[in-house]
Amino acid sequence: MSIRSRLILSYIAMVVVPIILFIIAGLLIMAFFRGDIRELSSLLPESHNYKQTVSEDAELFGDIKETSLVNPVRFNDPSFLLAIQEELNRTESFLIIRQGEEILFSAREVNHITAEDLPEFGYHSSDNNIEEINHKTYSIKQHDFYLPEKGIASIFLIKDASVLVSLTQTFYPLLFTVLLLILVVTNGILTYYVSRSIVKPINSLKSAAQKIKEGKLNNSIDVKGKDELTELAQTFEAMRLQLKESATVQAQYEENRKELIAHISHDLKTPITSIKGYIEGIQDGVTTSPEMLNRYIQTIYQKSNDLDHLIDELFLYSKLDLKKVPFSFELVDLKEYLLDYVEELGFELEKKKVDIHLHYDHTACYQVHLDRDKIKRVFSNIIDNSLKYMDKEKGIIDIELSLGKGQVKIEIADNGPGIPSEAIPFIFHQFYRAEQSRNKQTGGSGLGLAIARMIVEEHGGKIAVESGQDIGTKIMISLREVS
Ligand SMILES: Nc1ncnc2c1ncn2[C@@H]1O[C@H](COP(=O)(O)OP(=O)(O)OP(=O)(O)O)[C@@H](O)[C@H]1O
Ligand SMILES: [Mg+2]
């Protein structure tokens, strides 16, 4: 749940929960007073069993009223009145009969009430008037009638209501206190839970940020939920992973740089050492015949050439790596381009007894943007490898052009020894040479395919390899087709 809806809900709950509790409390009190909660009301003295007393009172009062209409004379009979009072005693109600301004009959318990204290003849505000007489509260039922020959008279059924009042007086402050308590507790609990659900993830984010600041990138941030803070934590986690990855890449770069320097020094040192050795041999007069001298000079020349080639490759590689090689792209049909290139290769391939075949669709157009010289470097590095590592009597190189998904694909396959599967993921890395090639006297620095990859990528294309030992090697290049 989002923080916003959580806050809204908690505010609603802060209002609604006390209201509901208040209503429940109110209903309970009402039920209590109406005698619906019998267990509670039974705890009180019988006279306070409100429902029962009310109905008994009402019944008796009805009888009295009826008698006053049918047979009013009976109210002159004290024994009749005493009998009524007797009945009323059970419900702790008391009878007063007022005739004119005089009290005609009054129960002993209420004989301090004077005729003036009572509501006047004809006063009917409700069936149960609450009156305060001599600092005491009474509930009064009144019925007015006419006594033959004596004139106006009123019957009063009086009940001490102070218990009820005192009960109300103590109950309401109690209720108010309970309500206040409910309000404080509800608000407290809700505030605690809502703030905890916000503060807890913030704290874990804080400690995660602290760790990242200290360079510790391995502690993952785990905040569960679906709110804004979880999203923030997820973004934070993504940032941590990104940082970790950059740190790894940085470390890898550093490692590569060190390796590169070591490789360069080694690769430069090897031919120079042997050149030096041959020259020293000549100086020391080791070459006893002109043929031998010639062989030495030939070797020195060969080694210098290797050195020159290596420096060339290194130079190109580092310039490509620094993205300092200018590219001049032009629209070229690869079919035409490769036909020319294969023709150019013809002589050398014939010498090495290798057949080359170019397969393409005569009707198709293989238009791409490319830098002629750089792409030539890519093809010659690949074909150089095919020739250099060829182990068959009859070498075959197949170049196949095809179109698909907006790409022009060039596949260069040879029937050479293939590349061991464990070496395949690395052959486009700089200075990588498969074990088998290193052992042979083929020469090379392991930069050829790394350079090819960089050039193809500069063209926005991709380069991949498929190879298996004894099947041969297939290098696949795809470039964006220009239609
Ligand atoms: N056609 C192939 N057949 C067999 N192995 C190959 C072939 N092409 C590449 N390889 C393997 O991949 C490695 C990397 O090739 P790459 O061209 O980058 O380096 P290299 O040929 O050793 O040196 P360089 O090309 O710089 O003279 C080679 O050493 C070789 O082991
Ligand atoms: Mg090579």
TrEMBL record:
Gene3D superfamilies from the UniProt entry: 1.10.287.130, 6.10.340.10, Histidine kinase-like ATPase, C-terminal domain
Which keywords appear in this protein's UniProt record, sorted alphabetically?
Answer: ATP-binding, Cell membrane, Kinase, Membrane, Nucleotide-binding, Phosphoprotein, Transferase, Transmembrane, Transmembrane helix, Two-component regulatory system
Please state the Enzyme Commission number of this protein. 2.7.13.3
**Compartment(s) of residence:** Cell membrane
Q: How does the protein's chain sit in the membrane according to the entry?
A: Multi-pass membrane protein
Q: Which Pfam families is this protein grouped with?
A: HAMP (PF00672), HATPase_c (PF02518), HisKA (PF00512)
Keyword Kinase in annotation: yes
- Protein origin, superkingdom: Bacteria
**GO CC annotation terms, alphabetical:** plasma membrane
Mind telling me which residue stretches traverse the membrane in this protein?
Answer: 7-33, 171-194
Give the protein's recorded name: histidine kinase
Biological source species: Mesobacillus persicus
Taxonomic lineage of this organism?
A: Bacteria, Bacillati, Bacillota, Bacilli, Bacillales
